[in-house]
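Query form — protein Membrane protein involved in the export of O-antigen and teichoic acid

QUESTION: What is the three-dimensional structure of this chain?
INPUT:
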Amino acid sequence: MSRAKLFVENFLAYGFINVLNKIIPLLLLPVITRLLPNTEAFGFFDMFNLIIGFGTPLAVMGLYDAMFREYFEKDDQQYKYDVTTTTQRIILFNSIIISIVLIVFSSFFSNLFFGVSEHSNIIMFASVALLFSANRSPIQAPTRMENKRKIFVISGLLESGGYYLLSILLINLGFSYYGLIYAKIMTIPVLVLFFWFQNKKFFLKGKFNKKIAKELLKIGLPLTPVFLIYWVYRSMDRIMITNILGTSELGVYALGAKYAMVSQLIYTAFAGGWQYFAFSTMKDNDYKKMLGNIWEVLFIISTYFFILMFLFKDIIFKLLFEGDFVRGVEVFPFLVLAPLLLMLYQILGTQFQVTKKTYLSPLVLSIGVVVNILLNLYLIPIIGIKGAALATVMGYVISLLVTVIVVMNKKLITFRKRIYINILTFSILFVFYYFYFNDYKITIIVSILYIIISAISYFKIIKNYIKKLRR
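ANSWER: The structure tokens for Membrane protein involved in the export of O-antigen and teichoic acid are given below.
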């Protein structure tokens, strides 16, 4: 099988389940917003998810990615079993400790996230969901590492369909946003059990190995700050909005961010198949050149998708939402770009894992985090939720630029010169989009110009990729 076909098959097959998990929320989210009493209710649920996202990276400690790296280190099956078993036991121990801490200090964390101690019950519910969410990662990993694609499709249907149908039922029964919370707590354990029965041999036939544990922690621990940084990117804006503007504004922002998940149809498809592809081809002689080619193609795809979403933003929100939820359009187009920038970063960041220099990831990402926090503090009081969206995007942009500089200086990737022209023209396009947010004539003109320039520069390359896929 050619590498081009391997990449696309993993992109589509493994990513399909993640795409499915995003499509169902996009279809049912307008229904849920109509059932909830106001934007504040949606804001509370968003904060519940934020808390889970805070504890999960601390429990996993980068071991999920480290497990992928070590799993392909040797062909010895017993070694593979020991890798998965060791990873699972460490994460189980960590998640129990973190859940207990959240429960014991629930009032403190309620003040931290909500600004008041009245919502400690939400903290407790989040601690339970966190326990199962963290352990789902290692338990489902063998399914991906063993290339069992059909099982992922089944699990996706189970999770997405079951969760949202249960949510709608509970909201209709009068539980409001608690219906969303209860549904999540009910569905995650079911998914964990599903994967346990599929992959239990990977955890029963293996044993805890101290040497493997040290190697996993050596790779994973430097990645922990990376995932916490991801959490800051996704969450610091929400915490600041809650404390500066209130939970109602958080609900508006969260809706815009949630529907911006449409861009994650690309990102999650990529993420679902990327690790297997990257680590299984990392020893190829032209790996660096291939990596650069993939990055350039996905950059163009990402920018085209962003343009499409920006031009149709008003139609989408006026058609699907009512009341204050329509204001989510203010942040939607900018937040659409964020997952795509993260995808482009992760392609480059893979080289830090391949070369076992994972300490570079938190260093380059921390620069973007500082920019993100400072811009949030400055822009939210001035332009509200739109400022938070802009701060998030600029944080990712800075991190991506720094990463490009680092990998090129260390000669970890090879780019064609034409990519710099496209980056420059897209930057100009983004500036026009911001200052002419509601001027369709200008935004359409600059969009067409960018598409023409990029299409001309990559026409031959795209044509060659299509030929390779047909072989």
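ADDITIONAL NOTE: The radius of gyration is 22 Å.
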